[in-house]
Amino acid sequence: MIRQMQPLRNLINWAKIVLPLHKIRYYPPQFVIRNPVIEVVNKAFKEGYEVAIVVFNINNLREVCDYLGEHNYTLFIKSLKKHFRLVIEKELEQDDVLVLHDYYSDGLTLFLRIDHERSGVSEIDSIMKKVLKESESKLNEEFSISYAEFASGYMFVEKKHYSVQEAISRAHQQALAMAEKRVQSEFNEMLYSVNKIVSQRNISLLAQPILDVATKEVRAWEMLTRGPKGTSLESPLQLFSVARQTGFLYDLELIVLEKTLEQINYTGCMQDIFINFTPISLGNQRFIADLKKLMLKYKNIPPRQITIEITERDSIEGIEHFLSNIKILRNLGFRIAVDDTGSGYASLNTISAIMPDIIKIDRSVIQDIDKNSVKESMLKGLLLVARETGSLVVAEGIESKEEALVMHRNQVDLAQGYYFARPGVLQKSMASS
């Protein structure tokens, strides 16, 4: 009976759209339309954001339903939706939640607005883990189920010339494939693509200058990754999200390091170079040995020229070799920077744990700081933290003259952003200027 009712139940649940979480709007089955989804995705694109589709699944839902029986199954689904929503409301800013589809088929689908300048795959990964862990715990407690297979996957909606509806549909299909991780064409296709990129080292690097706020001189460059041009993995968000979910993140970040060393060697760059690494890669047991091997290949590049930037918003807690690897990196002469400072607990916790050489202040603090006295007070507080730890400060994401003036007024050390320069290919003349 449950299996017979499922198609109807799926159709009804497809028709329920939550937009936003605190205002539930129900659309009758005969009026199931995707326009609200397309509208919010288009709006996010126009405002300069990316959109990620996150799927939460119970891969063995049918078995769970058979075990519970029809009445308890209905209660289970109701409780499932409630717990997912509560965790999502707690973990996310309301404006970042574009759409939440109710439980349908075997998954709950969340549309997230992502600011690619200050957020990334680690944050999404962290959100997914919290939603699944807390929801699973509550449901197991309520229904005494310990064998439900909770899973999740995500993908970014491509900004392409074809229809947004088609892009949403494809991203959802790929996110679902990531959640299920079964032998299916979508997952295998992405696995093949990222494996090919890694094996062929088929990435390119751009460099964005970091300037002295007082003198406007270029002091350093941050290296930024792009996937194969013209492909769905050209976007760094898409590339690193697929790499992370398919187990290629560490390999990809090592390729970025090697390609960066190649560029330093080719251009003769004498300025400092910032290279992004996730805490997961920095905590890898192989990281120090792999790094030493690469540095031996480029003996002319001193470790002091390289700044290891701990990026994304992964918590360092529970990463076994992270702190010991950071200590070794310091002893070898590398400098350590912490990204996203001011964006949340994780970055502040990282600062207290490792006492970085450089603190990068998140764009969320810098944006419109000239119009917001509270943000300037936050900046002053972070500068005090930097003085306490003996760290230099880099202000990220400066996009206007007014924001730059606030940095100058508060004697911030370094700055980067579109106001000064957009990312470009590192040239010999640029590198030596």
TrEMBL record:
InterPro entries xrefs: Cyclic-di-GMP_PDE-like, EAL_dom, EAL_sf
Domain (EAL): residue spans on this chain: 187-433
PROSITE patterns on file: EAL
Protein name: EAL domain-containing protein
Lineage: Bacteria, Bacillati, Bacillota, Bacilli, Bacillales
